[in-house]
Structure of Bacterial transcriptional activator domain-containing protein:
Amino acid sequence: MNALTLNLLGELELIRDGQPLALPPSRKTRALLAYLALHTRALSREHLCELLWEMPDDPRGSLRWSLSKLRRLLDTPGRIRVRADRTGVALDTSDIDIDVVDLHGRLAADRMEATDIEALERAANRYRGPFLEGLELDRFADFHSWCLAERQAALRAQTSLLAALVERLMHAPERALDHAHTWVRVAPFDETARARLVRLLLTLHRPREAEQQLKLGVRLIREAGLPLNGQLLRAWHETRQAATIIPAGSTPAGLAIHPVGEPIPPEGDVLEVMRWAALLAPNPSPASLSQVSGLDTNRTGAALEVAERQGWLNIDAGMLRFTNSEMAVKLYAAISPARLPVMHRRVAEWLVETPVTDLDQAQALVHHALASGDPELAIRATIEAARFSLRICANAQAQNFAQQGLALAEGMLGTRRICLALELHDLLYRAAPLADWEAGVGEVVALAEQALEHGALAHARLGYQLASHIRWAHGQWSDAHEQTLQAERATRCGESRDQVIAMAETARCLAMLERDLNQAAELLEQACELATRQHIGHPAIPLAQGLLSLHADHFDKAECHFREARTLCKAMGDRLGEFQAQESLLLIDLERDDYAQARERCTQLQELGKRLRDGSEAPYADAAAALCAYALEDDSAPFGVALVTLRHADARHRLATLLLQAARLDLARARTETARQRAGEALEHARVLERRSEQLLAHALLAECTRRLGEEDAWRYHARAAQGLLQEPVAGWAMRRCHALLAQPAAEDEA
């Protein structure tokens, strides 16, 4: 086995002697590694700079930095793999096992036939996902194009390898089945792959699974707008005939037989109802057929009675099912191309009017809307499906729906495209953190500007507010502040509800940022007055009220507001808002030193954090729970471990909050040096974020630490810094803590 293994299929992975190596955090450095690995010749520095860097970034300096990281990773004493001179760069891969190179090497016809099945299976099992998954770098067109081309080539190679394996293992269907399932997963629209899977399932006497795969295959291929060549139906029909002995004179496939020996074909209302049933397969309900077919209840019921008597449909637990899946496929295929999208549109419109209650319904809505041929209806369906998915914390599904909608929106023009794209970006951000947040926020701001130009004020507000949240989460508080104000400006001439939301959201953001608090209070007062007159409710109002009350050190009022906000967010399905309301309630518990209540709150936050997107919420909840354990049980080890994960999540504001709370506990337990380290780290984060209240508390804690350690100069520095911040608009709770800490030396001297 080679000492180094480089896996490019799936997420990039580098393994030395069986142990994964920590890769550089820079996505461009990892992309450079993959690009060099698949080029056998030296590449010019100019080409690499143009490929991965922009002019303002000092491309040559960035390239040198990335190469230095790769040398530490790949070069070893006596073995230089990264070779670079003044003009070119190359990577010697002669002793590196690269999965995608191995995959392509298996495809030569002579090698495929000569290689034993076990070796082919090992090669197939190395495929962990698409080439360089998550590392497309779509802002860099040349690299992005290369990546997509390599991805398609790897996918074709993998499907060819799996097809060969399935063919060579047809004599051992149990062993071939796993490879057939994998083949279908990587090529879901390949009718040949699905037909092979259906044949194997029938051969193994698993007809129900085979029928499900048949229906799924037909639906997916039709959704993709691809033709069906009949392989699936032949696989189903021929394999069932071969596997089943039909006694002479028996009725095949559940169809009633006409006295002259021919099946009775459906016609009239029966045919119409069964066409709609085929469209809604696999499990339409009688009520849904009556709603979409246009026939009244009596005619629908009479048609279903005939269909059941003839053995075409049966009913189980209130749902209909075709007794012969071939009949459903043929009925669907017989619907004219002109009528089919009209029928799908009718179903989609009916589903839009019905509240979404499960993921199957959400997927059905998107399926029928896509098949309707109406892009806007299809995008609206993805938005509804994504919103429902977020409500039930199905974040991966929400992300998929939102990405599907954005792909559709690219083909639209005008104001509708801009508005729909902004709604989809909002959903995408709620579903998962942005891989490239700077590019993402730039796109959102550009869309918000376009919405403003087109007079779509509510959507302009949504875009600016989203950009503000993204920047806030990544510590760019000054830019977040400006885009918060821009969101409010955008809707000054808008509808009442839009104005209320904009003013309340702006007040909330200004309070979070501790900027322009008088303006925040004025905006909130206007929002409350307008909301009362218009009977408008929105969680941004109590969230803003709670933050301003908390800043004023009115904990009881703040607690009431945050409880109201949590309830409203829960009712609206806004899980991130619900988490933030709970997080604020936790801060109140910690400031009250009520660690038992805080621990209960942490349990709720942990449950919610597990269901939220992969952001800093779950690590924060775990770290807060560990802090409570430190307070109640004097065990600081779990908190130290949890901080590592929270630091990796890069949530400076949350990290600073918990570090300051931990430093207070350390001081109370005479662990002065630990308190100083934690308060010092919190101060760094607070300075980057320009958070005066956290800076004040950090300086006060450091003043007390240095006083106890007898470091007079350091004590004076931090005490003066704290006194200076006390003249600024800081939170009342931080001011109270600071006064208590700074008063300790004088009190002890007097004693």
Remarks:
- DSSP finds 36 helices and nine strands in the chain.
